[in-house]
Amino acid sequence: MTEIKEGDVLLQVEGLTTYFFTEAGIVKAVEDVSYDVRKGESVGLVGESGSGKTVSALSVMRIVPKPGRILQGRVNYAGEDLLMKSEEEMRKIRGSRIAMIFQDPTSSLNPVYSVETQLTEIMRQHQDLTREEAKDRARKLLELVGIPEAEKRLSEYPHQFSGGMKQRICIARALALEPDLLFGDEPTTNLDVTIQAQVLELLKKLQKDLHMSLVMITHDMGIIADMTQRVVVLYAGRVAEVSRTYDLYKHPRHPYTEALLAAVPRLDKRKVLEVIPGNIPNLIDPPSGCRFHPRCKYATEICKEKVPQLEDSGDGHLVACHHWRELSLRAEE
Amino acid sequence: MFMVGVLFFVAAFSNVLAKYPARPDPAAFTPFYEGDTGAPPSWKYPFGTTALGTDVYSEIIHGSIWTIYVAVGVTAITMALAIVTGITAGYFGKYVDDVIMRVAEVFLVFPSLLLILVFARIFQLSVSATYWDVLGMKIPIGLTMVVLIIAIFGWAGDARLVRGEVLRVRELEFIQAERALGASRVRILFRHIFPNVLSPIIVVATLTMASAVLIEAGVSFLGFGDPNTVTWGRILYENFQNIGTLWWAEVFPGLAVFWTVLGFNLMGDGLADALNPRLRE
Asked: pTM to 2 decimals?
């Protein structure tokens, strides 16, 4: 294990391909997805539902549910290929070095155990701690995520907490062993807006304080703008564009990104929201060539035939579109 | 709860409550002869006496122990089988699931009462000893066989239920969250899935007790029970020929069975409500 310094690449995903072998056919959920995450950085994974955001994160942790299988690719984490690890080695990495928070805090906690049990369980599983030490750390964790009266609330059960509080507990649990990398799988989608802002603030603060890398999975462009330094735009299981967040909003290079940005309501301008015509394609039988071509207003013949590769359009801004050179896409001012 | 409580109370204090000791050798029909054969209910014999002069009241009291033995025994075995098979099938899925569930279905399509009778008779004929002596307690072999047979034919339905519950819980998000935290399979199964399927299991266990008591009474009533143990079903069996005249020797053991089965059923319903957080205030 090499020492990873701030700014070095911590996670490098290359050509990751995960399919689901269902009875209806093979769902090509994630295909040839590559991106990297540096130490201390936050990266956004954006896309519509079914674009492969979550599956690509689950693949990194190797917890893709059945009937999904990772077929190809490399997941380089701090110099080691996670896809080559044994299940037992992987189990030790999960939770302690890579952690994840899920979308629905209400169902992410086991209803039959107290908060203390849930928090200490993970610590005692990965480390040799006495009950007292673990409890002490659990209390500190609750304080860290801003739950008042930590001592008293440790003995309470999940249903005694509100949604926002539960998500804080989930965050505390994910942070219990100070992982280097945290996946947030739409951690705020099920919370109401004010709570959402609080939880995001908390995540931002914790990420800074603990020098963690954060991968935010979301479809909310506002969260991306607020939280991340770089963005990976996924469409139908493939990477459409990778860019620094600021550049993405200023100069989107992929027609899908442009359409996505145009569909975000804005407070400062009255305008009719544009919708992206059509639906996300059926991933059992995805469109040929560029998967976005049936919905793309710039599509030409080549888009139907050839799969566009990710190309560097300058300054590390990667885009997978045949026409990025000719198009000068409109950025929302 | 109260009705079942009464049953356990009666069983626990059977030696105090009963007026006469249990029959030393039931097979020999040694009666408690005080000369009162076929006496109607009175202060001396609250539930009357049988044609042989045994006190129905005392017999019922002594029988309560065996009722509990049957209820608890059958349920323990049934639930152990159902939980192990159900959880295995539900959690591992695929062909493990297929195999276990097909076996369960085979057990479900048996006309179980008939088979229980057949097996009960086979065991009855093949067993020579009457008791196992376990720490000074006399455990009747014949009754134990009946318990085993009922359990073997009863686990399949419950295994299905357990499997269904496991399938439901397995898909809940916290299971995936636990995996993401690095919990092992065994840990997820026993620490996280099992406690979450426990409440329906408890409810079904109670209902299983009720049906076990009922089936055992039925088996004994038909004369296929343990000839060395006076269970309620056996009292019914011994006396049903005289039902026209000595009705009390049938009605009171019947009421005892009724009371117990109803009690277990009500307890099951009560537990279902108590364990369901949605119905709680």
From this structure: 0.74
